[in-house]
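Q&A log
Question type: sequence-to-structure
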Amino acid sequence: MKFLCLPGAYGSAKNFQVQLGPLAGELERRGLCTFSYSQGTHEVDPPQGWEDYFGARPLYRFLDTRQGDTFETLRKLRHVPHSIPAEDTMRMFQKAGHGEDWHQRVWREALDAVFKTLDEDPEIDAIIGYSEGAMVGASLIVEEAERAKRSGCQRRIKFAMFISGAPPLKFEGKDRIVAQLFDEAGIVIDIPTFHIFGCDDAFLSSAVALFNVCEPSKSTMYDHGLGHIVPRDAENVGVLGDILQEVIPQVEEDNRKAAMKEEGEEGSLGGIDKSDFAASGDFYTFSPA
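Response status: OK
Response body:
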């Protein structure tokens, strides 16, 4: 399995390789997967007051923010109690904004750029996304499924890991981009997914909203007990390695069986469901010894 790695806002391929380094190294050591690092196409300066937070420059966004940005609005999520349903929290901030004629164009350009990266490496069959990168990755998975329905082309992405993610976006009307939420759209991501987040994440609601729109029988979540970060400590990395040691081979085996079924080389194997996906639908939380 080869992952396309998508960093968060104000990140870069180089910085994300450092952030993800301990976990990626652990998974590579176990022979589970390889990684290809990408980044947004728009070079940006960090927000005022955050100049030293995001690491070495240059920094990038997937979204062209020259005409506007939602960073300050999203920061307000940290003040929302976690007791409010995730979908209600996301709607609270969506309704505060108004569509602009450039919103859909910017989002389409961002998705097309990631699809171009995907097309340039035929070995990629999975995605790891952190924060904004998780939102982009989730949206790409939904878009790829829609394109497959229209054209009959094969879907590339068979597995996704989302770290402190956010739900996929969709076009609404002529000028709005809104999140796809479970109580409105239902399940929109049907491939196996692995969700990593921390109970102290100020943006926990967005990660939960993403988890909720993923097929529950194929989803696993892990709470590392920290904040809006990529876990790098030895204890969490070791536990994640053990869990993914079960999850990734099972996903690959299920994908192999599905491919054989499509080619008519096997009888009725069924799809990936909770009964044969060993770690699916599970919730893991880190408890230090």
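Response note: Confidence is low (pLDDT under 50) at residues 266-280.
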